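ok here's the first one, seq then struct tokens
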Amino acid sequence: MTKNDARPGGAARLPAPARLLAAALLLAAVMMGTPPARAQEGSPPPEPTPEPPAALDRPGSAAANAAADSTGNPAGTVAADSTDALADYLGGLSRQTNDEFLLRQLSIDDAAVDSLIRQWEATGEAPATLRVDRGWEPKAQLGALRYNRVEGVNVMGDASLSTPGRNPAVAFARVGLGWASGKATWRGGVRTPIPYAPAQAALELAHARDVMSYGSGGVPGNSFLALTVGRDLDDYFLADGFTATLSALPGPLAIDASFSSEHQSSLPNETRFTLFEEGDRFRPNPRIDAGRSHRVTLAV
């Protein structure tokens, strides 16, 4: 009978090194815990456990308000910059048009937007008009720079002072000096709202050079041509007087009514300087018959 490694029952006996390796793997499995069951071939991968849904804050709650910026937009949407840009743009338009009445009605700022949002949340309605209470507001800036044959170079400065209140009155002035003529020109006055009405009254006094004819691209174009090649296409006179204006917004209409009274007189040439036509004279500024002019204007 040949000696072999068989045991009663036919079970094969592992060699000694294999038995030691199997014992080591079994011990490691016990110490690390039961291994996960192997997926059957062809079965889909297990689905990840879903995260619990985040709590949603209802509009108007403290968390929702904290997540919104000053314009009422969701967190992460920065619209305050757009509001500031709009305010700067409207302010620039107002300055360029000497604080024209209609543009001043379009003023906007963050505080106004916040108040609109709060009122809309509380009532579902927005106010038709909204003004922010400001303090005294002085302003000063370069108003204009021009060159012509009756003044030479004229540098003009603008200044204004607004009163406190939601709809302020404004005092304004523009002062310039013609370097060739040595004469000062100025305009100044006041604009004030009319209480309990969408209207404004204004009074302006003037001692200023005025223009009888155009056709040179306005002040910038005419100044450029006059300074470079001696072509001053405008004609000028001196106006001393006042203009009273009433502006109103009755419903969808915008109405301006004004009355002007001026004493008008001639202005002589005061300079011959040009950059590229040295020695050439400007054409004479036409003389006018001195007298008083009255004008009534109605614009809708």
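and now the second one, same deal
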Amino acid sequence: MEVSMWMWAAGGIAAALVVVPSLKPDPKKRALAKARATGELDAMIDYVEGGVKLSKVDAWDQLFLELWQRYDRELAARLIMAITPKYTDTKIFHHWINQVMQIEPEIASEVFTQDFLMTHYRPELASQCGKCGCGG
């Protein structure tokens, strides 16, 4: 009887170890929800810059893509504009600026300032990206 009780207790602890972590909200989802609710970008910037498991460039690309596919394109453009100055030589950021300007010109004109585009946008880097990515 005592062994059976210990087995049940061990099973309960094992189940809790599996279930409880899955109840914790995903940090990326929390950051996206906060940005959507408040319009502030800090949570998303902190999420990527603060230690995601991917390279930061890959994490930014995936976040931009997720926002783009969900039609959160204004939020994507604002985030691109906020973080690109830190990654001025990184092709994928220029690709995303180009995407916004080509596909969502109204959003681009509302979000991207002329100063931002003159200072940070490099079309020659954007043109190096294609269907298979940018290679850097």
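notes on #2: The radius of gyration is 21 Å. The chain has nine helices and no strands.
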